[in-house]
What we know:
252 residues, alpha/beta, 10-stranded mixed β-sheet, two-stranded antiparallel sheet
Amino acid sequence: MPKLSVIIITKNEAHNIGDCLASVSFADESIVVDSGSADATARIALEGGAMVEVRPDWQGFGVQKNRALALATGDWVLSIDADERVTPELLAEIEATLALPHFDAYSFPRRSSYCGQIIRHSGWNPDRVTRLFKRGSATFSNDLVHEKLMTFGPIGELQCALDHESYRNLEDVLHKANQYSSAGAASLHGRGHQASLGTAVGHGLWAFVRTYFFRLGFLDGRLGFVLATSIAHETYFRYLKLWLLNRDEKGP
């Protein structure tokens, strides 16, 4: 069986990292690159058998994941987030695949929950992510947020799901909305994008309509409405922050 490395990046994930590492205990090595957590993330990761490297000089999700990838020594790499869990069914499929691989990279579906409910519509399902790859066959883009795994060949498809505990509660929703909208605005600003107050309002409204109606969020019940509203909220603030960055750059 080829050697498998699991890579995870973290920041204040003490509530998640233990269960995450337990779900990948089958791997030959687990590597955690921590961004300088103020909680017990690093200690829990060490107790869970992971190799931990602290890199507080944050330059974005893509850069941090490439740092973790550079530490991997396995023939294959599985990249997951601290709020994700490898299910027993996915584990069995991964082991069978690595015993006789036909591709250098594989995707699998991700099953995400929002405030305790599995979301089956709203643009969250189907949600296929490419996370398993032969070391040397892929790298991460250097994006500040929403980084992509860039592969150099065809991608195989696994069928069993990765569980994703995306947002535990509304406090988590608000915290991540602020974090992701700031990173998204900085990324857009770095690429020369412009925005206005009207742009922010328009993008926010469209995000709600697209999620709740076109992506059938109403079929996810009451939390489908809450999710669509939170996506609109994050989108609005992303472009509002971009507008303010543009304004500050131009000066008074």
